[in-house]
Amino acid sequence: MMNCPRCSSETLVETPALGNIPLDICPGCSGIWFNKGELEDLLKQSQGNSSADLNLINPKAGCLVCPGCKNQMLRGGLVNPLLLVDRCESCGGVWLDPHELRLVRKLLGLPEDVSDVKVDRPSPVPAVPPARDVKSTLIKVVSAAGAILGLIGISFEIYLYFSPTAAVAHAPSAGMAAASVIFLVGGIFVMNWID
After folding, report:
1. How many domains does the chain contain in total?
2. Structural domain boundaries, residue 39
3. Fewer beta carbons below 10 Å: N end or C end of the chain?
4. Do 16 and 97 contact (CB within 8 A), yes or no?
5. Alpha helices, DSSP H only, in the chain?
């Protein structure tokens, strides 16, 4: 995967959009990355076997970084000193902004049978959920059981407190109620505390 030299947050998308040559296109700015020889092949398909000189005219250090080899690219004229493009001297790749491809074709007298090429951003790869930690899962299960036990204990103590003394065999216990509240609150706290 290569990042766009113009908008570094975008990933170039490979597509055979121009003359069945697999080109890398930015979904953000629609710029096109030509690997070494691809621009020449495209122009040969358009104009037959004759070839133009595609060496840079008056090359100077550019501000873009090559998406392939990460070296600083040179900026210079292509075919004409006024058509400035970026070229990597290390790998031979050429970066054309969207309007520059049309200008190359126009300067070479080629038919403009290609309009702006647009691609969609690739779908993001879903993140793999992290593996569950067995220890934290076990702590959560025990905490939940403690909270449920505390809720049952509190419910039973409330039942004993509001029931007539002749109807129940046990009297409500403050110690049992306190233990039940500790189980309930402690279980809920630990469940929320463990991630």
Report:
1. 2
2. 13-107
3. C
4. no
5. 38-47, 98-107, 134-162, 174-193
